[in-house]
């Protein structure tokens, strides 16, 4: 167990002022167990990196920015747990934990981005200090700063995205890109929350999102709590809903955006983007710049997580398909840039994204 008594008290706790699924409490990481929502509010406490990696794989925490923040705290926990044996000459245990954390889920680049940032912080701290406590302090500060920055960026994304909406807009969203998927506020739901406070939202449709039901369990819960009018729709009802409801915008988050502007997000996003084009509904992707992976030249090169057949053949532990039937269970799909009207980041809006506009967005 990590000993924390020689750390300054200001580093022992961080709980954002607004709702967040992640908190740092008395030198331990606490995650709201998203598998139990909306019916149970249950926080789990973590004190070592391997159990944090399991929590990410097992979907206790999910959503691209949220798993990045969680992994950053995981690195801080690793330094605390190895404090007795760690030396600035031998960082092997902490580097092994970073590798473990980076393998916890493959598609969301925010995870690798946060771990790279923590690794850089570690190397800088080691170059500057020999005292282990100073290194541990630097890592906790960095994890808290990643968490704070994500919330701040979500608000900027929300404001930039809301500027694109007209009053009385009807919006469709998929999966959960809300406070639960980030440090707080959300990306796609950040846009919806910000637009709602400006009286621009008349109706939100939330797709249920098989097989984990993030839309049914998480998005409809978040929107209901915020008093935003939400109607839940099944995956199969998406075409009918877009045909008959004059939906103005499809607004989704992202797990990784390639240099050509194509977007990996929860499986089903690609179907919705095609439907949206057919029904004259615009498509907005809301994501912080940590979701871009400019080393990936084109969207089809983004690694797509394949999850267990059992998630499709069973509902929770109850079989819903004949025994022995196998399933295809990609967790994400890739929407090409030409189906996207706007990508919104904390820096602003990239309209009708392409390779040149994305490069320019990051040059400025
Ligand atoms: O499998 P999940 O629940 O982690 O998938 C989440 C999504 O696809 C979100 O849309 C994405 O991570 C953006 S979250 C701001």
TrEMBL record:
Its EC number is 5.3.1.23. The active site is at residue 255. GO terms for molecular function: S-methyl-5-thioribose-1-phosphate isomerase activity. Pathway: Amino-acid biosynthesis; L-methionine biosynthesis via salvage pathway; L-methionine from S-methyl-5-thio-alpha-D-ribose 1-phosphate: step 1/6. It catalyses: 5-(methylsulfanyl)-alpha-D-ribose 1-phosphate = 5-(methylsulfanyl)-D-ribulose 1-phosphate. Gene3D superfamilies: translation initiation factor eif-2b, domain 1 (1.20.120.420), Translation initiation factor eif-2b, domain 2 (3.40.50.10470). Substrate binds at residues 62-64, 105, 214, 265-266. It is an enzyme of class 5 (isomerase). Keywords: Amino-acid biosynthesis, Isomerase, Methionine biosynthesis. InterPro entries: IF-2B-related, IF-M1Pi, IF_2B-like_C, Initiation_fac_2B_a/b/d, M1Pi_N, NagB/RpiA_transferase-like. The keyword Isomerase applies. Pfam families: IF-2B (PF01008). The record marks 175 as: Transition state stabilizer. Belongs to the EIF-2B alpha/beta/delta subunits family. MtnA subfamily. NCBIfam families: eIF-2B_rel, PRK05720.1, salvage_mtnA. PANTHER family: METHYLTHIORIBOSE-1-PHOSPHATE ISOMERASE. Catalyzes the interconversion of methylthioribose-1-phosphate (MTR-1-P) into methylthioribulose-1-phosphate (MTRu-1-P). This is Methylthioribose-1-phosphate isomerase. It comes from Litoribrevibacter euphylliae.
């Amino acid at each position: 167990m990590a000993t924390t008594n020689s750390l300054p008290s200001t580093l022992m706790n961080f709980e954002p002022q607004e709702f967040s699924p992640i908190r740092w409490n008395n030198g331990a990481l606490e995650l709201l167990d998203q598998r139990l929502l909306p019916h149970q509010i249950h926080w789990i406490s973590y004190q070592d990196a391997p159990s944090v990696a399991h929590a990410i794989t097992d979907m206790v925490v999910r959503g691209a920015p949220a798993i990045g923040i969680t992994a950053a705290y995981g690195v801080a926990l690793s330094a605390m747990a190895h404090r007795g044996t760690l030396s600035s000459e031998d960082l092997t245990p902490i580097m092994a934990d970073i590798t473990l954390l980076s393998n916890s889920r493959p598609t969301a680049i925010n995870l690798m981005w946060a771990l790279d940032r923590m690794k850089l912080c570690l190397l800088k701290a080691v170059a500057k200090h020999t005292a282990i406590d100073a290194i541990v302090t630097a890592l906790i500060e960095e994890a808290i700063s990643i968490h704070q920055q994500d919330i701040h960026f979500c608000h900027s994304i929300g404001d930039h995205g809301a500027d694109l909406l007209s009053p009385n807009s009807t919006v469709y969203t998929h999966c959960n890109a809300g406070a639960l998927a980030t440090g707080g506020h959300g990306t796609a739901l950040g846009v919806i929350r910000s637009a709602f406070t400006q009286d621009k939202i008349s109706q939100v449709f939330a797709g249920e999102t098989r097989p984990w039901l993030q839309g049914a369990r998480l998005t409809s819960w978040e929107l209901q709590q915020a008093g935003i009018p939400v109607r839940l729709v099944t995956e199969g009802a998406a075409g009918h809903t877009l045909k008959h409801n004059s939906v103005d915008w499809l607004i989704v988050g992202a797990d990784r955006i390639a240099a050509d502007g194509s977007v990996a997000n929860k499986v089903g996003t690609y179907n919705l983007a095609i439907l949206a084009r057919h029904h004259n509904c615009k498509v907005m992707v809301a994501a912080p710049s940590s979701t871009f992976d400019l080393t990936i030249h084109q969207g089809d090169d983004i690694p797509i997580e394949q999850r267990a057949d059992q998630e499709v053949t069973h509902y929770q532990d109850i079989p819903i398909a004949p025994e022995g039937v196998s399933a295809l269970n990609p967790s994400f799909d890739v929407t090409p840039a030409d189906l996207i009207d706007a990508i919104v980041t904390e820096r602003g809006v990239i309209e009708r994204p392409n390779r040149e506009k994305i490069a320019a967005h990051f040059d400025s």
